[in-house]
């Protein structure tokens, strides 16, 4: 698997049924291998992504890019405009939330946003009552946490 830092440590991460994926360095346990890899990169390998403007450091590249976009661009209904030169970065001809104005390029993402943020509709596990924003996250939870239960 590309980006699997557990292999760099010389140990393949293994799912432990009762707990999850344990970090071989500090013992912290994760339900998803991706989260274990992210933890190792950020906490133990100290991998950081710097903002090219202010040098602020981020564990996740996506967070740095969001920071950069917010620092440089004003968000409008039609897209993003550069705060420095006024030029439009791109136009979003998409779907706007009528409640808060946030714009989405996909109708599905707008629906998910409205259900989760404004209507507070969640997907609830009928066994432990834990709530999830997305049906796929609930399905993964059921498989990982309740696979031994017949329902």
Written description of the protein model:
This protein has 151 residues and is α+β, with helices and mostly antiparallel strands. It folds into 3 domains: 5-44, no CATH class; 50-93, no CATH class; 105-146, Double Stranded RNA Binding Domain (2-Layer Sandwich). Helix content is 34%, strand content 19%. It contains 5 helices and 11 strands. The strands form 5 sheets. It has a 3-stranded antiparallel beta sheet. Strands 1-2 form a two-stranded antiparallel ribbon. The chain is flat, with a radius of gyration of 20 Å.
Would you summarize the structure shown here?
It comes from Lottia gigantea. With 151 residues, the chain is of the alpha+beta class.
- Beta-strand residue percentage: 15-25%
Unreliable residue runs: none
Number of separate domains: 3
Shape: flat
Name the helicity range. Answer: 25-40%
Could you tell me how far the N terminus lies from the C terminus, measured between alpha carbons in angstroms? 33 Å
Number of helices: 5
Overall structural class, as computed from helix and strand content, comes to alpha+beta
Task: Name some characteristics of this structure.
3-stranded antiparallel sheet; about 35% helix; about 150 residues; 3 domains; alpha+beta; single chain
């Amino acid at each position: 698997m590309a980006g699997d830092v557990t292999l760099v440590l010389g140990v393949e991460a293994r799912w432990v049924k009762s707990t999850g994926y344990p970090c071989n360095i500090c013992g912290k346990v994760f339900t998803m291998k991706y989260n274990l890899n992210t933890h190792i990169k950020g906490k133990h390998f100290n991998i950081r992504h710097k903002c090219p403007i202010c040098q602020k450091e981020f564990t996740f590249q996506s967070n740095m890019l969001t920071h950069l976009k917010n620092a440089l661009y004003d968000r409008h209904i039609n897209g993003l405009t550069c705060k420095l030169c006024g030029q439009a970065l791109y136009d979003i001809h998409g779907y706007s939330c009528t409640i808060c104005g946030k714009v989405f390029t996909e109708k599905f993402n707008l629906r998910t946003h409205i259900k989760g943020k404004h209507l507070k509709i969640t997907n609830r596990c009928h066994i432990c009552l834990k709530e999830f924003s997305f049906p796929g996250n609930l399905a993964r939870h059921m498989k990982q946490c309740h696979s031994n239960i017949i329902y």
